[in-house]
Design a protein that fits this description.
3-stranded antiparallel β-sheet, elongated, mainly alpha, 11 helices, 251 residues
Length: 251
């Protein structure tokens, strides 16, 4: 099956008069990059409802009307806010050059990203979309009695920049690589030809030590538990030959 060719504007979208102006702008300014046109079209399209309510195009909005519109659109990152700010400034200047906006005033020049726009970032939306290290620590704290240290370090390590291709930096980690006094971990690549030291905290080191000493993997009550084979690494493999370990726990 051949890859579907990208089309701009999207074929499934029926354009209104305000959208047509945005498409004209994007086709002129970003005519050589369809990906950019599609991305910026998605950023501009939510403003259409505010244009219809005010019965005028964005380029004719006042500063207060722009702030109200921008503040009503869910955003969860500074990057998105900066993109909206830059794009609207471009659009306003484009409209002024073509005499669509006869005032020759770009209201976006009087809107500060830091003072006016960053406060619109929806931190609740951000927390639902991304799990922070502190958020993960809270989850671990609330569920620790049901978790194995082996599982905990697997999800913690990437938050400290330890991952590697196919999780190689995680599965190849040994206790001898952990420098407790320095709060560091010596990361050695799979081929032993590169290495680096990663600064961590005592929180991670405590779980690494617990995982290193963990030789029983607790499953849920329906599955019981199983021993772990000491393979020289912090993350161990289950002893699947010991069939009795799969017996249902009576505890």
């Amino acid at each position: 099956m051949s890859k579907k060719e990208k089309v701009f504007p999207p074929e499934d979208k029926k354009l209104g008069k305000y959208e047509e102006t945005k498409v004209t702008f994007l086709n002129e300014v970003y005519k050589d990059n369809i990906d950019t046109r599609l991305t910026y079209y998605r950023l501009l399209r939510p403003f259409v409802i505010f244009e219809e309510v005010n019965n005028k195009d964005l380029y004719a909005f006042t500063k207060d009307e722009l702030l109200e519109a921008i503040g009503s659109i869910p955003t969860y990152s500074k990057r998105t806010i900066n993109s909206i700010d830059s794009l609207l400034k471009q659009y306003m200047n484009w409209a002024i050059e073509r005499k669509y906006n006869l005032s020759n005033i770009n209201p976006m020049d009087h809107i500060s990203v830091k003072d006016n726009l960053e406060k619109n970032i929806n931190t609740n939306l951000l927390s639902k979309r991304f799990l922070t290290k502190e958020g993960l620590k809270k989850v671990i704290f609330e569920n620790k009695k049901d978790l194995n240290a082996q599982d905990i370090v697997c999800v913690l390590l990437p938050f400290y920049g330890i991952y590697g291709k196919a999780c190689s930096e995680i599965v190849n980690l040994k206790w001898e690589h952990v420098k407790r006094e320095q709060n560091e971990i010596h990361i050695i690549t799979e081929n032993d030809n590169e290495s680096r030291f990663v600064k961590v905290d005592s929180y991670l080191i405590e779980y690494l030590e617990e995982a290193n000493k963990e030789f029983i993997y607790r499953r849920d009550n329906a599955e019981g538990s199983m021993p772990l084979i000491d393979n020289g690494y912090i993350l161990k493999v289950p002893d699947r030959k010991n069939k009795t370990t799969y017996a249902k726990s009576n505890e």
